[in-house]
Amino acid sequence: MFRHADAAMAGSGECSDVLRRKKFKKPVHIVYPGVNPVHFFPWDAAEFRRKLGLSGFTIGYVGRLAKEKGLGTLMEAAAFLGEGVQLLLIGSGPDELELRRKARSLGISDRICWISSIDNTDAYRYYNAMDVLVLPSLTTPQWKEQFGRVLVEAMLCKTPVIGSSSGEIPTVIGDGGSVFPEGNVVALAGSLFRLRTREEYRIAIAEQGFRRAHSEYTFQRMAERTLPVFRSLMEGCLS
Asked: Which residues pair with 112 in a beta bridge?
């Protein structure tokens, strides 16, 4: 298929690299996926937090419950931080039972709120209920994080984000959050401790993430990146 293409659009730099490794020689334009800010926005979640039983510093995660998503690292960091820290884990997957066993072994089972699935129209409520969203993905020989849409969704809600160094995560976060070396429990715990104890920093990083999400990852921005690609291809066909 790509042999007949005059150009390609990739959803991330990582995707672009895959095309190059596959010997695609034509121009590759990076067009990041867009997220609709109409559905993700800051919201007072105090009452919602009470309904969920969240009273402490809440670390959130949204995604598959699988080894490569790095939840073991996140749980160990939460245990390292001690009492007063809770986890809000949203998702399901093949490693849920193993993760529940790990939580028991770490002594943090009673500090985890497990939610298997949520309605997309309610997602903003959960992001706003978090004090921070963490995407702790781990690179494997077959996989690395290609984008991390949940980071953008959280940023649009003015929820601070922390991500690992896997794949495209550092690029997506940019100056709008914190990045730690993947698999490094102590580094992640340090980033979480800083957010927990430094309110001015937490507010500033949330604002930076909010601005970055609006400037780089909305449907409008996606269209602005896509249109010139189509125009250049059409002009080439007509010339």
From this structure: 87
In a domain, 20, yes or no: yes
CA distances from 133 to 31, 41, 162, 173 (A): 24, 15, 6, 12
Residues 195 and 97 in one domain: yes
C-alpha pair distances (Å), 35 with each of 55, 69, 161: 29, 21, 16
Query: Does pTM top 0.70 for this prediction?
Result: yes
| Cβ density class 40-76: b for 16+ within 10 Å, e for less | beeeebeeebeebebeebbbbbbbebbebbbbbbbbb
Token couple for 205? 């990083």
Helix/strand/coil percentages in the chain, nearest 5:
50, 15, 35
Cα gap 236→38, rounded to integer Å = 36
Q: How many C-beta atoms surround the C-beta of residue 166 within 10 A?
A: 26
Note whether 228 and 163 are same-domain residues.
no
> Each residue of 143-172: pLDDT tens digit?
999 999 999 999 999 999 999 999 999 999
- Domain span including residue 188: 46-215
**Count of alpha carbons within 13 angstroms of residue 183, beta-carbon side:** 6
Instruction: Output DSSP code: residue 217.
Output: S
Question: What's the domain count of the chain?
Answer: 2
